[in-house]
Write a structure and sequence with these properties.
2 domains, Spore Coat Polysaccharide Biosynthesis Protein SpsA, Chain A, alpha/beta, seven-stranded mixed sheet, CBS-domain
Length: 346
């Protein structure tokens, strides 16, 4: 069966890396196919983009700079069963189908041929905050239950996790937590398993980890309960495991333009003058993966923030790394962002 969806992700070799990023964000297919007169020259996945960002490659460079020309494919004469085997072997979410002339004629996606993995790794969703910046909307409703196009923010997050194969969900609750419990229950109606971490007092952005009791000692994910994103939680976990990291933080690039000309000096001598320079840095996206041993580093029932936890892990000489993301990301922290989320999901 021909899946015409892949046509949205076919780009010419003249496109820039930045244009490929835009396409990945729009299609949400996690891959682009670089073609010339329908001939498949190479592929670019979101993993290739992340590596380019880490190498600080100029995103205005042509895509051929980073495209993968040694891609895995199936010949058009082979069956879907062969494609399924290759996708499981190489842990691929997509595999192109080409003919003898390397013309791209189809793409198999894991969702459509049932190769999607299932993860036993737990996911903690932090949903205990007061949502003060969204008051009065949060006066009688916890922020994670605020609706985005008819569904609570938290339900969007849980559905995304379920669709990626995560089904062991732990929700950390405090403010109006009983409303969250009443809505989601044990998770059965959402096809996941839900347990709750009750914060008697607010424990900060990392304190709830001390009360988390894993049933399988696997590495676990943590995410804020007010973040809507197209990030692949599965890819984040696989990246963390492949790098043998103790703690991995998803980060986004943040750009800030200085309102004035910036002068650099050597004593009283002017070295350079830069007019309103744009500075960039990585910022925390509120999504993490940890080894199970990290739980022991968080004191029971003590308020603890995530930056302090990462510093503690780093000071103990354990590996802490970033997962650069370019996917759509919205923190439903104030009325402006909440309104933006409504428009995005229409």
């Amino acid at each position: 069966m021909i899946n015409k969806m892949f046509h949205k992700a076919v780009l010419s070799k003249e496109k820039t890396i930045h244009e490929v990023i835009k396409n990945l964000s729009v299609t949400n297919l996690q891959i682009c196919f670089i073609c010339e007169k329908q001939k498949l020259l190479g592929t670019v996945t979101d993993g290739d983009i992340r590596r380019a960002i880490l190498k600080k490659i100029n995103l205005n460079q042509p895509v051929k700079k980073i495209m993968n020309t040694d891609y895995v494919f199936v010949d058009s004469t082979l069956s879907i069963h062969k494609a399924r085997k290759l996708m499981k072997l190489y842990k691929l979410n997509q595999i192109p189908v080409i003919n003898k002339k390397k013309i791209l004629i189809n793409v198999f996606f894991s969702e459509t041929i049932d190769t999607s993995p299932s993860y036993e790794n737990p996911v903690i969703i932090m949903a205990g905050g007061f949502g003060k910046r969204l008051y009065p909307m949060t006066k009688n409703c916890p922020k994670p239950l605020l609706p985005i196009v008819g569904k609570p923010v938290l339900e969007h997050i849980i559905n995304k996790l379920k669709n990626e194969g995560f089904h062991n969900i732990y929700i950390s609750i405090h403010y109006l937590g009983n409303m969250i419990k009443e809505y989601f229950g044990n998770g059965k109606k959402f096809d996941v398993n839900i347990k709750y971490i009750n914060e008697d007092n607010p424990l900060g952005t990392a304190g709830c980890i001390s009360k988390f009791e894993s049933i399988n000692n696997k590495d676990f994910l943590v995410c804020n309960g007010d973040v809507l994103t197209d990030i692949s939680f599965a890819q984040l976990l696989e990246y963390h495991l492949a790098k043998k990291s103790t703690a991995t933080m998803a980060v986004r690039k943040f750009f800030w333009q200085h309102p004035f000309g910036v002068i650099k000096t050597n004593g009283i001598k002017i070295k350079t003058i830069t007019e309103k320079p744009i500075e960039e840095s990585y910022v925390n996206a509120g999504i993490y993966v940890f080894k199970n041993d990290v739980i022991k580093l968080v004191k029971k029932n003590k308020k603890f923030e995530m930056p302090a936890l990462f510093r503690k892990i780093k000071n103990k000489k354990f590996k802490t790394i970033i997962f650069p993301m370019f996917e759509n990301w919205l923190d439903i922290g104030d009325a402006k962002e909440y309104e933006k989320a409504q428009k995005k999901f229409i």
